[in-house]
Structure formats: structure tokens, C-alpha cells
Amino acid sequence: MAKPIRLLHFADAHIDIANYGRHDPQTALPVRVMDFLQSLDQIIDRALSEPVDLVIFAGDAYKDRNPHPTFQREWGLRMMKLSQAGIPTVLLVGNHDVSPASGRAHTLHEYSTLAVPHIHVADRIRRLESDELGLPLQIITVPWVSRSQLMTRDELLGKTSEEVLAEVENRVTDGITKLVETADPHLPLILTAHASVSGA
Fold first, then answer.
1. What is the C-alpha to C-alpha distance for residues 118 and 87, in angstroms, rounded to an integer?
2. CATH of the domain at 183
3. Phi-psi region of 85 (alpha: psi -120 to 50; beta: other; left: phi over 0)
4. How many CB atoms lie within 10 A of CB 198?
5. I need a labelling partner for 180 at 20 to 30 A (CA). Which of 42, 111, 129, 174 fits?
């Protein structure tokens, strides 16, 4: 019997939501942000103490696509703990992490740009393979998908919102289906997505 794989999954951290409240005198961070960071610390500490084999973060590290560098530092310190522990960590790009403008960097880009060990940034629909993860499993990643990522301006012309949405859904579904059909049937397959689900 194969050894079970221990997985820790979390999403929607939004660590920089600080619309109100006071600041901590020692760190100068908003107290509300300190609350979010303490919760994130509990997640990271649990991943390290178990230890888990894999961490999947399913998107929205920040409240928007322009986080303050201080908040990026705080997120980065925690991701580096996972990296240094050698825990494969998938960072899926959520709707709050990405710009609607085509070609712009998202809030998690630096991890792939700097090739941070054991950190896998998922900013497109794809399958992470067993050899990339160092684990006997595969992961299909579906980050937040905008119209501009899947359709050209010419393809959008003259279409209603409903027609565009239907086309985007079809293209995402087709992409996932192809990845499922070509996956190794002898290995577990995980799908992680940051998406709206009709009827949910």
C-alpha cells in the first residue's frame, strides 16, 4: 500500500486588509494585519510541525494586485519557511493577485522570477508533474482566468457578456479535460482552482 500524502490546503489569505483600526507600536503594522499574519503563522507552523508533504495555496494572498512592499515582505518570510523546509508549495494566482490588463505581472511573480526552491507559481492552466513536485502525484492548476487571458480583442468584439462568459467557460473546461485525459492514470490527480462556480 502506498504511503499517504499529507496535504495542507488554504486560500484567500488577504493579509493586507486593514480598512480600520490602530497600528501596533512595535511593528508599525495595522493590528488587523497582525491578526491575519498570526493566522498565517499558525498555518505555516502546522505545515512544518506535522510535517506535511505538500502545501497548496489556492489564491488571493492580498486584497488587491498592488500590495505594499511591507506586506509582500511579510508574505515572503512565511513562504521562505516552507521553501527552506523543502516542502513543495503551490501558489495559485487568484483574482485579487492578477491585473486585468494582459501582460502585467501578478503579485506572486517574484517567486517564479527568482526560481525560489520548492515554490511552484501557478499562473496558467497546466498540470504540475510528479517529477516537478518530487511527489507521486499530479496537480492540475486553474488560476483565476480573465477574458483577456483566453480571448483576443477581435474574438470579444460583438459578443454579449453571456456569450463571452460561455466561451471562457468552454475554453477552461476543454483545457482541464485535456489535462485529465493525458494524466498518468497510476498517480493521484488533484485539481486546484480559484474560480466562481455556477450554482454554488
1. 6
2. 3.60.21.10
3. alpha
4. 7
5. 111
Q: Which residues contact 28 (CB under 8 A, 6 or more apart)?
A: none
pTM here?
A: 0.89
Distance CA 145, CA 168 (A): 8
> Is residue 159 domain-resident?
yes
Report the C-alpha gap between 53 and 89 in whole angstroms.
9
The answer to whether the CB of 86 falls within 8 A of the CB of 122 is no
Domain count, the chain: 1
Question: In whole angstroms, what is the distance from residue 200 CA to residue 198 CA?
Answer: 6
Residue 70 Rama label (left phi>0; alpha psi -120 to 50; beta)? alpha
Residue 200 forms part of a structural domain = no
**Conformation bin of residue 118: beta by default, left when phi > 0, alpha when psi is -120 to 50:** left
Per-residue pLDDT of the chain (200 residues; tens, 9 = 90+): 678 999 999 999 988 887 667 887 887 787 888 889 999 999 999 999 999 999 999 999 999 888 889 899 999 999 999 999 999 999 999 988 887 666 778 889 899 999 999 999 999 999 999 999 999 999 999 998 876 665 556 666 677 778 777 888 888 899 999 999 999 999 999 999 998 777 66
Q: Determine the structural domain holding residue 150 and report its residue range.
A: 7-193
Report yes or no on 198 lying in a domain. no
